[in-house]
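Please check this.
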Amino acid sequence: MVSPAPVVGPAGPGDFARIAELTVAAYAADDLAPAEYLPQLADVAGRAERAELLVARDQDGSIVGSVALVLSGDFGEVVESADEAGFRMLAVDTAARGQGIGAALVRACLDRARAAGKRRMVLSTGDRMAAAHRLYGQLGFTRLPERDWTPVPGVDLRVYSLDL
């Protein structure tokens, strides 16, 4: 049986605890983030001050995914101009993977960026995040290797982009 498509929309403060739990669990499950980064993943209130938080809800209304959309400001890190948007900390509940939740969240980011007049979406992702790399490729993103970066020693991030 195919699950109904998730409903993606803005997160509210009442969602922050679940977003923190979900994001930390998703990154920790696959050992995709160093332990010292987990508190930053859990700081949803701080993220909400610098980005638009979106959540995906299943048919019961439970949050099964989240992402931070960056339309302006310094939280994008790989965003280099006013006509670019970015997203960060895309996470899907480990029990709900494979249902199109990540793709729905990315598409919502793309739609909001287009509506805001942005011309390109950029993002960075860890070099070991194979599932994310597949998803971005399926959605039409291409590598932007000249913007790859290393925020801390031992953490190498790949940059992808999609013209809107």
Q: What stands out?
A: The two ends are 33 Å apart (CA to CA). The chain has a mean pLDDT of 90.
